[in-house]
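Work Package 4 report. The design task specified in the project plan requires that, given a folded chain encoded as structure tokens, an amino acid be chosen for each position. We show below one input record used in the internal validation round.
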């Protein structure tokens, strides 16, 4: 299936990022431009690899990769894994290229660099007459779904996991190794093995998104050094999923070094995506919450019947994450699926656009 990859490793090196007024390829139509996300908005794009069946299209996608990306792809094992990795790179390149609304940017010409912790960033080459947008992005993929999240000015981390993911080890043994004591306690209290497995995957997805948003990597921010919780807050006039009209569920992160302090400058969303995956989004708030007052509240971890109390921030009203979701096959089809059955909120303050 992927023999075309090895045949094209000798293609030209990546060219300098520039604007131009022609199609990226004679065989591919131009990308539809998209406006930059607004304040506290996340754009979320995803591809289902099983829906990309054309060998010709996959071959054209490979033309967008850098020589290094093609070489890495060539050495991967398994056609399905190679396909997912190819689509991940193409999704990032085409998604970023969409946001150059004043001119077209060739997805092939984009260059990337990594931070000291390995988080990828666009390596923009600034020109005298062109200023690159303040985009932040993050990618995640399984063999069955590839996703890219985009924000402006603030860091973002995303993770996607298959709902039917199975673990080789026992869940509690695995959780005791990687999760915080409070999270292990929560999972231990769940007697139903299937519910326990589902809650484990949700927790893992959220923790992964947080670590990626922080941008320090797992080694610098081990999973067992922080706790993910969900708390119920009053949201006058704001209708939210699976709660009463006056309440909403906000996800917060708590440091094990300072368990009394909830870190208020991160915004989370947990979604049921395409009916087959959990997707977690973590983005930094542009303005942290104000003062802190002491109020006892009940924390609910999704559908689990486990209750604990905590103090929560109340200086500013919590603002929902503005979320727009697209299902795409780059250059072929873009479908806005926000607010449909393909995007079902599970927890977090979310306003779908």
């Amino acid at each position: 299936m992927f023999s075309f990859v090895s045949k094209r490793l000798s293609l030209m090196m990546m060219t300098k990022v520039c604007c131009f007024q022609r199609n990226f390829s004679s065989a591919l139509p131009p990308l539809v431009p998209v406006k930059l996300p607004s304040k506290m908005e996340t754009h979320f794009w995803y591809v289902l690899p099983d829906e990309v069946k054309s060998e010709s299209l996959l071959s054209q996608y490979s033309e967008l990769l850098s020589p290094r990306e093609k070489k890495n792809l060539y050495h991967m094992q398994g056609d399905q894994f190679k396909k997912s990795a190819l689509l991940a790179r193409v999704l990032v390149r085409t998604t970023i290229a969409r946001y150059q609304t004043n001119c077209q940017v060739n997805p092939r010409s984009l260059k990337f660099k990594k931070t000291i912790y390995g988080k990828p960033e666009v390596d923009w080459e600034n020109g005298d007459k062109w200023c690159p947008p303040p985009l932040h992005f993050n990618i995640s993929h399984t063999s069955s779904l590839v996703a890219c999240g985009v924000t402006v000015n603030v860091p973002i981390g995303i993770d996607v996991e298959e709902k039917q993911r199975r673990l080789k080890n026992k869940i509690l043994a695995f959780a005791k190794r990687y999760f915080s004591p409070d999270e292990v306690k929560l999972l231990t209290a769940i007697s139903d093995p299937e519910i326990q497995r589902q809650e484990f995957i949700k927790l893992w997805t959220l923790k992964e998104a947080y670590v990626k948003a922080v941008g320090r990597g797992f080694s610098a921010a081990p999973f067992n050094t922080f706790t993910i919780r969900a708390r119920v807050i009053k949201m006058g006039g704001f209708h939210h999923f699976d709660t009463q009209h006056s309440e909403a569920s906000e996800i917060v992160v708590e440091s094990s070094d300072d368990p009394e302090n909830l870190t208020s400058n991160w915004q989370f969303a947990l979604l049921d995506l395409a009916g087959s995956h959990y997707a977690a989004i973590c983005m930094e708030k542009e303005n942290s919450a104000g003062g802190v007052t002491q109020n006892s509240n009940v924390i609910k971890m999704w559908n689990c019947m486990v209750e604990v109390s905590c103090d929560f921030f109340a200086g500013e009203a919590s603002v929902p994450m503005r979320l727009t979701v697209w299902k795409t096959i780059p250059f072929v089809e873009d479908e806005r699926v926000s607010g449909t059955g393909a995007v079902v909120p599970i927890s977090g303050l979310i306003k779908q656009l």
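Helices lie at 3-7, 55-62, 67-74, 79-98, 171-178, 181-188, 193-214, 217-220. Validation will be extended to a larger panel in the next phase.
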